[in-house]
Amino acid sequence: VGRKLDVSAPRAYIRGPYTHAMKVSFMHAAVLHLTQKSRYEHIAVLEDDVIIRHDTLSTNVVQEFRALLKSNAWSIVRFGFRPYFLEESSREHCPLKCRCDIKKHVSEQFCELSRAGCDIRSSDFYVIHKQYYEPLRLAILDRTQANSKRIVDTRPMRQFAKQWLLLPQISIQTKLDIPVDYQIGLGALYAKKCVYPRPLSELVTRQLFNVSNMGNI
User: Fold this and answer.
1) Which residue in 125, 135, 120 sits closest to 171, CA to CA?
2) Among positive and negative, which fits the CA dihedral 206, 76, 28, 191?
3) What is the Cα–Cα distance from 69 to 48, expressed in whole angstroms?
4) Closest CA to 54 of 164, 165, 168
5) What is the spatial distance between Cα 70 and Cα 129, in angstroms, rounded to a whole number?
6) What is the pLDDT of residues 132-172, one digit of tens each?
7) Which residue of 2, 74, 79, 148 sits 20 to 30 Å from the alpha carbon of 43, by its own alpha carbon?
8) What confidence tens digit (pLDDT) does each residue in 15-37 have?
9) How far apart are CA 129 and CA 26, in angstroms?
């Protein structure tokens, strides 16, 4: 489906810099449009280069995810994430807008980004609530903005509060500008700097990744 949408993407929406990223973003906008027409309560979006880290899944994660969905206290649930702000500087304290709180009455493995604006990227695997289909789609298609601000996992996804992250992340990407072990390392650094309250559970802190175990993912 993604390749067919890439070919059919209107040139007006993808011309200029970041052509590939704009094609990917247009695909997300098209999926959101179809979802709105179908009146789904929420949908999961997975990109084609995703692999799942089965070794990080706990026995309670499905039950906790179900409870989170029923709560309606969320905009987007992200199963993979890239704390891009840490790539620029890993020595600074965690920005307040990037603090992610584990609320044990909801879940011990999901944390909430209660504020909007944190530069956490990756659109490889997420679930989105129906209330946010149109705002995300419109932000992607807003041609008054520069292409760099229309890429789905930059300004468009960053505008929403009440995002939840699964810890540790279970999805990673094979076609990215950083290697797999670096993706996992960034997730571990983010948990160390930005996830509260402390101490974190052993499951959340278990971010070590051995590339030789790729066959077990």
Assistant:
1) 125
2) negative
3) 24
4) 168
5) 11
6) 999 999 999 999 999 999 999 999 999 999 999 999 999 99
7) 148
8) 899 998 999 999 999 999 999 99
9) 19
